Amino acid sequence: MTTAPVALEIAVTSPAGALVARDHGADRVELCVGLELGGLTPSQALVETVHETGIPAHALVRCRPGGFVHDRDELDLMEREVRTVLRSGAAGVVVGALRPDRTLDTDALRRFVAAARSVSATAEVTLHRAIDHAADPVAAAASLAELGFTRVLTSGGAPTAAAGASTIARVVEAAGGVQVMAGAGVTPADVAALVSVGVAAVHLSAKRPAVGSAHAGVPMGGSDDGSAHFVTDAEVVRAARRALDVVAA
To answer: Which residues form a coiled coil (predicted)?
Structure first.
């Protein structure tokens, strides 16, 4: 039996980031805006433009920052966003929702999966790191195949994937046919150890501050401290690709 190669996914927020990821060894990108807020749903135009780069893009669908317990209006909006980003060219969607008791909101997740597959029967659906806020990430992972998910992105409930590697190994065992992708604070130096626990993919933001993008003017919101925004770092993408190639050799 041949084992599929471990995929490299890069989180990007722009067409330029998608091109950097494509040209330096990524297999796909997760597309969002507001990476500094944990990522939010990208616009239709952004999805369309990244689709034109040719690299498969999985669009994050998250309508606001903060926790993952959503009210009815938010769930209705995100269900529509799922359809919109897929019709705009996304290869898949990245979704998540929890109940107040920190179990997966399976009703909401079924809605998202059904909405995705109503647009494309082959649409890939990833559960995002809401699973890391669940009371029991391993038990949550065990339910994903029945819900129709393609994969899950997780740090094993830890601040970083490297710190949560032992739990990620348990998630791999529990998830069955659902792919497990390790993400959160991943650096190229972490790749070999994460691959060793059986993940199907590694996920990096591979970001650096954009030169000259900081400002010292009037704040644009409560969380605006004038810091620079982030762009995709080609060298980090290349280093992660090299690390995966070494493991595969």
So the answer is: none
Q: What's the chain's Rg over C-alpha atoms?
A: 17
CB-CB contact of 174 with 204 (8 Å): no
CB neighbour list of residue 193: distance below 8 Å, 6 or more residues apart: 162, 165
In order of their start, the domains of the chain are: 7-248 (3.20.20.380)
Helices (H), the chain: 15-23, 44-51, 72-87, 106-119, 137-142, 144-147, 165-175, 191-196, 234-248
Q: Cβ of 27: how many Cβ atoms within 10 Å? A: 17
> Is the pTM above the cut of 0.70?
yes
- Euclidean distance between CA atoms 201 and 179, whole angstroms: 8
Question: CA 243 to CA 245: how far, in whole Å?
Answer: 5
pLDDT in tens, the chain (249 residues): 347 899 999 999 999 999 999 999 999 999 999 998 899 999 999 999 999 999 999 999 999 999 999 999 999 999 999 999 999 999 999 999 999 999 999 999 999 999 999 999 999 999 999 999 999 999 999 999 999 999 999 999 999 999 999 999 999 999 999 999 999 999 999 999 999 999 999 999 998 888 766 676 766 666 666 666 789 999 999 999 999 999 998
Identity of the amino acid at 248: A
Burial class (CB in 10 A: 0-12, 13-18, 19+), 205: buried
